[in-house]
Write a structure and sequence with these properties.
alpha/beta; six-stranded mixed sheet; three-stranded mixed sheet; 10 helices; globular
Length: 255
């Protein structure tokens, strides 16, 4: 039997998803995208955080152009919107997602990484949006997610020139949050995911749902939304447990 295109390992409250197309540098095909979507559509009930990574030295080298299907304008638009739906499910599905990055994080791979909430990169990591060199445009959400990390000016230059950013440069720009030694990204990602999984589930959920949306709002709308989020979390049973644990100098026991 062939190896699964997406390996799923659950350990306690953390699930590790490993993209498994080593001969393609984990390039994204429809079957891999569907497997990722399938997990996030109905994750195991015990899972409270997710680690997403690649194999054989690469995270994801983008769209598998060898499986490119010629589409008309409507078909291309619908395919792009399908990507958007999966990336939205990753970002706003309610589970915190930590990506362990190494090697290629290119095109659709960067779109995938930018939909995760915490990113950890090894020295081999490089970020690239080469669409301009191929006569195409991003279609999996980079113009929004990567554009908001880098700013439109820097992303335009990145796409026009096909420029690569290293792990260190990526950290300074916000493409990754942590840089670690070679071979250390997965362990660090699992450590962070375990820590996040021990938070109150409601506050994790609210942070995931609210902060990215608040950044799209006007100042007054954002502040009002913040007050609503504070009211929901600070009156929850988990908030009472967190306060009691602090006063009693113990670790909280959240739901």
């Amino acid at each position: 039997m062939s190896e699964p295109i997406l390996n799923i390992e659950v350990s306690g409250a953390v699930a590790t998803l490993t993209m498994n197309r080593p001969d393609k540098r984990n390039a994204m095909c429809d079957a891999l995208l569907e497997a990722i979507d399938g997990f996030f559509s109905k994750p195991p009930e015990e899972v409270k955080a997710v680690v997403l990574t690649g194999t054989a030295g690469h995270f994801c080298s983008g769209l598998d152009l060898s499986e490119h299907v010629a589409r008309d304008a409507e078909g291309t638009m619908r395919h792009s919107r399908g990507w958007h739906q999966v990336m939205e499910r990753i970002q706003f599905g309610g589970l915190p997602v930590v990506s362990a990055l190494f090697g290629a994080v290119i095109g659709g791979g960067l779109e995938l990484a930018s939909a995760t909430h915490v990113r950890v990169a090894e020295p081999s990591t490089f970020f690239q949006l080469p669409e301009g060199r191929r006569g195409i445009f991003v279609g999996g959400g980079a113009s929004v997610r990567v554009g908001r990390i880098l700013g439109a000016d820097r992303m335009t230059e990145m796409m026009l020139t096909g420029r690569r950013y290293s792990a260190g440069e990526g950290q300074s720009l916000g493409l990754t949050h942590y840089t670690v030694g070679e071979g250390e990204a997965l362990d660090k990602a699992r450590e962070l995911a375990g820590k996040i999984a021990s938070n109150a589930p409601l506050s994790n959920y609210i942070m995931i749902q609210a902060l990215a949306r608040i950044s799209d709002m006007s100042k007054t709308d954002g502040l009002f939304t913040e007050s609503l989020c504070a009211a929901i979390t600070q009156t929850s049973p988990d908030a009472l447990e967190g306060l009691a644990a602090f006063l009693e100098k113990r670790s909280p026991n959240f739901r």
